């Protein structure tokens, strides 16, 4: 079964094509084809990069066209030129989409219908950087591939098992009845990493208490018990929780009231401050990219040092909160760009929990570990670095749904 996966972001559209045979493997196979569109801040030009399993590569820059036209061009590289891997787009049997927000109604992967599209559109105000981009991908596929089956896999779905004590905010209850509650995000990644951790350790997932740390430009933690999410740091929107690249994470809501009353901030100005001008970028004044912040810190930049210190403090505090929800810990997992690549962040996070008997092997931690346990043999908690495979997790759910 040939499955095309679309993973839409606010500034990028990642795609890959899998050819899955039965029985479906647990480990992610190499995609036949991988394509990505990166948009600059002004939306144009678009940088197109494509690679295939046979080593063919393509890099192009497209200017002046709409996102729909640019994405249609990306799809054309599947059947044309040196990156051709199939004879016709009709060979694709199903297209899977990562959709960030599914609200309360969509907790499992679903076949996309007109009603589903309308529901994704209604939820755009809760995930304005992501749900609209997913809709663009769905519509382009409709135009390019006709009536091919399309599947929505929701990032919020894994967290639908949160108990009400974790999901309901202490605000007037009628607001909760209107859907204002903790949804949680990065669920596809958290679920995949928990399953992969159990595989790596040769343990039954249902026997483990796991904290998964998805640390990328967006950051969130999940407390996973018996394979189910019971707590997480992101909330009603992806803005809550940990300090992130340009997002603030949790702040005193009184700050927002103060800015509204004393400085006449508009809702748009608040949105920009909290989502685009805060986090590592806002504190360091340098970048939302942790690598650039670290480089400045090592050169003696005090604001970069402060950004690092706040990031680590918030991460440790978040892990501590998840630890309390689990009432113990068997496995700590690091994943996504920062989690997989920053040995310094992993070490800084772990040293705070040495009182639990958690010990990481400093040498293993420095060796760019992938899908391995970096804890010492006598550590009471296993510490894993797992390469998240969101696209493969989506493909697995598409395969199961279509079968």
Protein model, in words:
The record marks 186, 247 as: Transition state stabilizer. Mg(2+) binds at residues 7, 390. It holds the Pfam family Acetate_kinase. This protein is of the alpha/beta class and 403 residues long. Helix 10 (290-298) crosses helix 11 and helix 11 (302-326) crosses helix 13. It is globular, with a radius of gyration of 21 Å. It has helices spanning 67-76, 114-122, 131-145, 164-167, 173-177, 187-201, 253-263, 267-276, 279-284, 290-298, 302-326, 336-341, 343-351, 362-365, 390-402, and strands at residues 2-8, 12-19, 33-39, 46-52, 57-62, 94-99, 110-111, 149-154, 209-215, 219-225, 228-232, 331-335, 372-373, 382-385. Strand 10 (219-225) and strand 11 form a beta hairpin. The protein has an 8-stranded mixed β-sheet with strand order 5-4-3-2-1-6-8-7, with helices on both faces. It has a 6-stranded mixed β-sheet with strand order 11-10-9-12-14-13, sandwiched between helices.
């Amino acid at each position: 079964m040939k499955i095309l996966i679309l993973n839409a972001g606010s500034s990028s559209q990642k795609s890959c094509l899998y050819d899955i045979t039965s029985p479906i493997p647990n480990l992610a196979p190499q995609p036949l084809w991988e394509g990505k569109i990166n948009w600059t801040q002004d939306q144009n030009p678009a940088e197109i990069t494509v690679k295939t399993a046979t080593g063919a590569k393509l890099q192009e820059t497209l200017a002046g066209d709409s996102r729909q036209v640019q994405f249609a061009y990306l799809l054309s590289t599947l059947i044309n030129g040196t990156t051709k891997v199939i004879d016709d787009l009709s060979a694709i049997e199903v297209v899977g989409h990562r959709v960030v927000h599914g609200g309360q109604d969509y907790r499992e992967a679903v076949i996309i219908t007109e009603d589903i599209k309308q529901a994704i559109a209604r939820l755009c105000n809760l995930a304005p950087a992501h749900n609209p981009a997913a809709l663009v991908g769905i519509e382009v596929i409709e135009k390019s591939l006709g009536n091919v089956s399309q599947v929505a896999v929701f990032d919020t779905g894994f967290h639908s098992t949160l108990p009400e004590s974790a999901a309901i905010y202490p605000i007037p209850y009628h607001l909760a009845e209107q859907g204002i509650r903790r949804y949680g995000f990065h669920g596809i990644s958290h679920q995949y990493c928990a399953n992969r951790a159990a595989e790596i350790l040769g343990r039954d997932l249902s026997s483990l208490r796991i904290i998964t740390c998805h640390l990328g430009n967006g950051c969130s933690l999940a407390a996973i018990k018996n394979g189910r999410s019971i707590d997480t740091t992101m909330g009603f929107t992806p803005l809550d929780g940990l300090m992130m690249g340009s997002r603030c994470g949790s702040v005193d809501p009184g700050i927002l009231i103060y800015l509204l009353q004393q400085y006449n901030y508009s809702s748009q100005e608040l949105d920009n401050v909290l989502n685009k001008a805060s986090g590592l970028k806002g504190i360091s004044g340098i970048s939302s990219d942790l690598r650039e912040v670290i480089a400045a810190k090592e050169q003696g930049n005090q604001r970069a040092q402060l950004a690092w210190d706040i990031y680590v403090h918030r991460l440790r505090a978040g892990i501590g909160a998840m630890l309390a929800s689990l009432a113990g810990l068997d496995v700590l997992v690091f994943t996504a760009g920062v989690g997989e690549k920053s040995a310094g962040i992993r070490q800084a996070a772990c040293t705070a929990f040495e009182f639990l008997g958690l010990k990481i092997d400093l040498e293993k931690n420095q060796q760019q570990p992938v899908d391995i346990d970096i804890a010492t043999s006598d550590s009471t908690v296993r510490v894993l670095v797992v390469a998240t495979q969101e696209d493969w997790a989506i493909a697995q759910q598409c395969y199961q749904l279509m079968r």
